[in-house]
Design brief:
The protein is an alpha+beta fold and 213 residues long. It has helices at residues 8-19, 23-28, 30-52, 105-116, 118-133, 158-161, 182-204, and strands spanning 55-57, 76-81, 86-90, 93-100, 137-141, 165-172. The protein has a six-stranded antiparallel beta sheet.
């Protein structure tokens, strides 16, 4: 079997979960989640694996230990690809992301140095323009309100320097194509369009070398 999109029941499941985010609802409708939501995601990841590497689905339970919101379940299904990329389905439709969502301290140091340097910094600006021309939008994460320490406030790329993460993101509202193979085409189109950003980040920032806690 190959991925043929998500049925309308997948979005219905999340619409009802948003209204009744309870263990009682989840247990009563788990078969709907397994068949209409998770199974298509598993097929999608299998189809993507030859080009984009293995993928993994995030657990549906929320981590509520330090949250004021004690709702037990996420109102979306999310999965990430080993080679880079994130896929999300919810009642709001489909969304995809790519890039470095949260930079570790050593990554952040390398990122800022590369942004500040004339050649690599200008290259990143060109990469962002290219990615956004193809559809995805590039945005920063955990952005500082002022210049990071050691960098002038009037640096020509100060907006990029203030970010603590950088990702490409694209969303599509619910539509009939979501239940067809066209969903695969849109997802792979996003992954290809956002690849230049990932390539820049891999080349100039790379993985964190700090010990895992």
């Amino acid at each position: 079997m190959t991925f043929q999109g998500w049925p309308a029941e997948a979005l219905d499941f999340y619409e009802h979960l948003e209204a009744d985010n309870s263990k009682t609802f989840w247990q009563a409708h788990k078969a709907q989640y397994d068949d209409a939501v998770r199974a298509p995601m598993e097929l999608l990841l299998a189809d993507l694996e030859p080009e984009f590497g293995p993928g993994k689905i995030f657990r549906p339970n929320r981590d509520i230990r330090f949250s004021a919101d004690k709702s037990p379940y996420k109102t979306h299904i999310g999965a990430y690809l080993e080679a880079g990329g994130y896929i999300q389905l919810s009642a709001d439709g489909l969304a995809c992301g790519n890039g470095f969502y949260r930079l570790a301290p050593d990554q952040l140091e390398r990122y800022r140095a590369a942004v500040a340097e004339d050649v690599s910094g200008a290259e990143l600006e060109r990469v962002i323009a290219r990615v956004e021309k193809d559809g995805p939008q590039v945005s920063g994460r955990d952005t500082l309100k002022s210049a990071p320490r050691g960098y002038p406030k009037d640096h020509p790329r100060i907006e990029l320097l203030r970010h603590k993460g950088l990702v490409a993101w694209q969303e599509w509202p619910p539509a009939k194509w979501l239940g067809t193979r066209s969903a695969y085409t849109r997802i792979t189109g996003f992954l290809h369009a956002s690849q230049p950003l990932t390539d820049w980040l891999d080349g100039h920032v790379g993985p964190s070398e700090l010990p895992t806690r």
